[in-house]
Specification:
By secondary structure, the protein is of the alpha+beta class. Helix content is 51%, strand content 25%. Strands 2-1-6 form a three-stranded antiparallel sheet, with no helix packed on it. The protein has a three-stranded antiparallel sheet with strand order 3-4-5, with no helix packed on it. It is rod-shaped, with a radius of gyration of 27 Å.
């Protein structure tokens, strides 16, 4: 996820540098001075866009991190003996038919077991 944010920031920086360089070439080719106010507004607009993109990227990253670190209560019911075993695990630690509980146990579920996932609110 962090690589996506860095890649987005890199693309924005590259576009900013490209347009900045392109603007200098145009100015030197025409020898025409543009008003200073337009430079200031353009620079402010670019900084505002970059700030908004970074803020939104940070909010999305935090939201996904928060979802991944939710604690899920897992009830495993053995269908042959009806024994119930209760585990707790982070949402990100659940991968298909296996998960790692909060106390470090790696649990692999069989096809004969019933599983209930209970999310705390």
């Amino acid at each position: 996820m962090l690589s996506k944010i860095l890649f987005t920031a890199l693309v924005i920086l590259a576009v900013y540098i490209f347009y900045r360089y392109r603007g200098r070439v145009r100015i030197s080719a025409r020898k025409v001075e543009q008003p200073r106010e337009s430079h200031r507004f353009g620079r402010l607009a670019v900084y505002a866009i970059v700030a908004v993109l970074l803020l939104v990227s940070g909010a999305i990253y935090f939201y996904q991190w928060q979802l991944a670190h939710r604690i899920i209560t897992i009830r495993v019911i053995d269908s042959a003996t009806n024994n119930v075993t209760i585990y707790q695990a982070y949402h990100k630690a659940i991968k298909g038919n296996r998960f790692q509980s909060l106390d470090g146990k790696t649990v692999v579920l069989s096809e004969a077991e019933r599983v209930e996932f209970i999310e705390k609110e």
